[in-house]
Amino acid sequence: MSYHEAPAIAASDAPRLDQDDRPTLRFVTCGSVDDGKSTLVGRLLYDSKTLLDDQLDELASESRTVGTTGDDLDFALLVDGLQAEREQGITIDVAYRFFATKLRRFIVADTPGHAQYTRNMATGASNADLAVVLVDARKGVITQTRRHSHILSLLGVRHVVLAVNKMDLIGFDGDRFAAITAEYLTLAGQLGISQVQCIPVVAPHGDNIVAASARMPWYTGPTVTAYLESVDVSGDVSQRPFRLPVQWVNRPNAEFRGFCGRIASGTIAIGETVAVQPSGRQTRVARILAPGGERDRAAAGESVTLTLADEIDVSRGDVLTAGPGPLVSDQLAAHLVWFDDEAMVAGRRYLLKCGAASTGAVITTLAHRIAIDTMLREGAATLDANQIGYAHLSLDRPLVFEAYRDDRSMGSFILVDPISHRTTAAGMIDLSLRRATNIHWQRLAVDKSVRARLKQQRPCVLWFTGLSGAGKSTIADLVDRRLAEFGRHSALLDGDNLRHGINRDLGFSNADRAENVRRAAEIAALFVDAGMIALVALISPFRSERELARQRIEADEFIEIHVATPLAECERRDPKGLYRRARAGELPAFTGIDDPYEAPQAPEITIDTSELSTDAACERIIGYLREHNYV
Amino acid sequence: MLDIPTPAEPALSERTGGERLRAASHLRRLEAESIHILRETAAEFRKPVMLYSIGKDSSVLLHLAMKAFHPGKPPFPLLHVDTTWKFREMIAFRDRRARELGIDLIVHTNNDGLSQGIDPFSHGSARYTDVMKTQALRQALDFHRFDAAIGGARRDEERSRAKERVFSHRSAAHRWDPKNQRPELWSLYNTMLAPGESMRVFPLSNWTELDVWDYILLENIPIVPLYLAGSRPVVERDGALIMVDDERMPLLAGEEPRWRSVRFRTLGCYPLSGATVSTAATLPEIVREMMASRTSERQGRMIDRDSPASMERKKAEGYF
Fold it and tell me: Is A336:A107 a contact under the CB 8 Å cutoff?
């Protein structure tokens, strides 16, 4: 076939690229090696008449010399532009190409199929609205199809065209196409990819690319081009609350101080109130400078400069917001796609970049890794290159962000190795693990300090931990009574009592115990916010959970009291008869008997009731509170 | 107001359906992305510079930089690598624009090359380009210790350009390693550099040639008049129309400059820039002519065709 044959689009229909509002669809092509991605992209460029005569002459001449398609044009040569790619006949790196039809403009990221270049595929997918996933009709859905689809789902690509290529090599078998389609739809369902259009194609010959294929009359759906032109991928970020990551502070002279950045979501107008995050300070928008000049209003996607009504401190990395507060935390959980050949190491410090903010970050734990073949979560300590995992990160300072599923630009980050400077991972933020200390997203008129002043006390949490029968509830009850006598305001959260109400649904598995502790900590934190002294009496056997509780509450407001009565003494007392039943094997996994109790390493107060009476223990705690100006 | 011409704001400020703003048009989206990249460069690097080649892409880039930092000036100088073989009109235009905009302009010429008498005729375009452009650029970047060089290259220009990142890392020896580029996700750019290393930054990566012309038209951006058709003295050589811009051009036997109505789609050194026969003397006429054109702009660039993958090789050696 030569390019002088009549192209699929008649000349009169050739796209007019004049300046207009045709929307741009960004898509990515993916699939395994030799599935024909580059050929498909080349074909799309060719059929959309994007290629000009001198480029076609060059393609024809190169197809003869370095091509792999005999006398036909080798469309892959249009996109595989690096020497190494031509030598090996594969795609190594992402190529971005542009073409347009009458209805739409397209930016296509043609990405490599090799597993070793998965990172490049993720790169292409990060800005894509849609993905064309190619499979070879002879092979069907394979590991690489799963891997790529999983990455697409992680990166929030919800629209997929499954192009089943090389239909000519299976005799245009409609049943085989249906079987591959069914298998892929199951996979897409598991991954939450909601929109899938399956199309049988022969990329080098153009079947069902632009024109419907006469060789597959059984297929009555849209062609690839028709689908790409018509699919609705809109997810309107202008409907979300206003977010502007501050990129640059513009101070050309003493009179002008503007804050520059690209609006991530929402709209803003002159006179509207904005908050500077993470400080939470509020002011109003005085002026909006857009590339075309002064404006009354601006929307998501625009690069603008704002001036503010008040002189408040704003620097690069801060975020101007309106409406409901964003997430602000120095602890977060995120999906990671690991890029670097050097494996991920928990505890090592990386540089994290999110929007215009940069901060040091440590991966504290790898919660799980995804086994690509089965897509099941598996336990693992590290991630190798091209692996996907879910990790907890601890940052040097609080970050202003959104969950990735809500906002791609405010919820994405990269990790950079501070020594090699390589980009080691892409991250998609799932949630905040806790509120960072001293961060207030919503400035309330009556806040904790006001309430505390009214009550003439500093709010805090007294967290009693220790074995069953150690005396936690008894001491806490007495402390509570004494505080009431002085006219202080306190509340006692007893583990057993909580289990009658808010924790009624929880059992005694490790996961349920962790949840038990988490809820108690959340409630205690609310009491602290209300200016109260909260007493929590809970075995809380694991150090890590108590640590989470401590992190949930501000640093100087958490007082850990280890009721360190020895096991033998607790068992001798056995006030609820639990040890007896545990010893009889009736209560499996009982703390202290066949389940461990991890004693605190540095509690604020330690009390051994085998040496100290309840009254004396109570006095010691009240003394501590006085000494540290809580009461 | 901006001190650059700003025609009526299109679509953007219109309101439709109450509070919703109309989606930014294609060019406004490209503009917003490019401005984001320019500001990111200014914020992240110690000493950036903008490469200014006087061509249409450079004109667009300079215009965007003026907008990105308005009402301030761009916080970086312009650098022009002058081979001494540019069209005279280009040099005049360069000096006038720098003066009008009040921007620092650094002009660098490879004086070693000059003293060796390297010229595009006797040494061939490949050697000439290497000495007077690639080596000259490296000298200038090293001398001023610039750590980021902003350029107007676009991904639609050439296949190896389509593979290049927006922030493209260069080793201390200015080498580009196409097989080991940093992954570039979302709008997050890894700008970390070791001592001596540098970055090439391409804010126009996602623009096409037609986008550039549309934007020049929309924004009324000044360009070198050579882009518009005019009667100019040309000779036909190796299938290209070469303008005889000064007396240094040696004429071959039988060659005699003829005055023809021509214009340029791409501008570089005059002996290496082929003209096209055209009567398009206004911007709208150029855009119309472009849309009907069946050849790419780089057809007029002799140096792209030195050998297969010549652009990739030149880039690996430090060419822009």
Answer: no
Could you confirm whether A194 is annotated as catalytic?
no
Whole-angstrom Cα distance, residue A43 to residue A206? 7
Rounded to the nearest 10 degrees, the angle between the axes of helix B56-68 and helix B88-101 is 0
Q: Which residues contact B268 (CB under 8 A, 6 or more apart)?
A: B53, B55, B86, B301, B303
Whether cis (ω within 30° of 0) applies to the bond prior to B250 is: no
pLDDT tens, residue by residue, A121-164: 888 899 999 999 999 999 999 988 988 898 899 999 989 999 99
The pLDDT tens digits of the residues spanning A431-450 come to: 888 754 444 445 566 777 77
Best mutation site among A16, A29, A55, A98 for testing chain B: the one with the most B CBs within 10 Å?
A98
pTM: 0.74
- Give the residue among A401, A431, A411, A360 at the shortest CA–CA distance from A278: A401
| Contact (CB<8Å) B295/A247 | no
Measured CA to CA, the distance from residue B171 to residue A134 in angstroms comes to: 36
Residue B129: both structure tokens together: 């380009």
Residue A102 in contact with residue A12, Cβ under 8 Å? no
Tell me which of A540, A544, A610, A613 is the catalytic residue: A540
User: Beta strands of A91-240 (E only): which ranges?
Assistant: 95-100, 105-110, 130-136, 159-165, 195-200
Q: How does DSSP classify residue B59? A: H
β-strands B105-108, B78-81 pairing? parallel
Residues A530 and A452: their CA atoms lie apart, in Å, by: 8
Cβ distance B218 to A293 less than 8 Å, yes or no, reads no
What is the C-alpha to C-alpha distance for residues A292 and B220, in angstroms, rounded to an integer?
12
**Contacts of residue A362, Cβ cutoff 8 Å, sequence gap at least 6:** A346, A347, A348, A349, A350, A393, A394
Least Cα separation, residue A252 to chain B (angstroms):
5
pLDDT tens digits, one per residue of A256-266: 999 999 999 99
For residue A460, give the nearest of A488, A441, A434 by alpha carbon: A488
Cα distance between residue A366 and residue A301, in whole Å: 34
Structure tokens at A416: 């950079």
